[in-house]
Automatic annotation (TrEMBL):
Annotated TM spans: none
Protein name as it appears in the record: UPF0434 protein GCM10018781_73210
UniProt-listed SUPFAM superfamilies: Trm112p-like (SSF158997)
Pfam families named among the record's database cross-references: Trm112p
GO CC terms in record: cytosol
Highest classification ranks of the organism: Bacteria, Bacillati, Actinomycetota, Actinomycetes, Kitasatosporales
Native source organism of the sequence: Kitasatospora indigofera
Length: 60
């Protein structure tokens, strides 16, 4: 998964408002919060980021 750079510039974590970074695997892409206190990972389904806190994976 490769999002357009301008999207990564404007997308933020809905929980803490920190910037998001691409992560995950090819099979399970995700956007990870870069905030130190948050760290949520949001799934990307069919190329569309699902920015819902209830759908996010908590850090281990």
């Amino acid at each position: 998964m490769k999002l357009e750079p301008f999207l990564l510039e404007i997308l933020v974590c809905p929980e803490c408002r920190a910037p998001l970074a691409e992560g995950g695997t090819e099979e399970q892409p995700e956007l990870r919060c870069t905030g130190d206190s948050c760290g949520l990972a949001y799934p990307v389904r069919d190329g569309i980021p699902v920015l819902l806190v209830d759908e996010a994976r908590r850090p281990a």
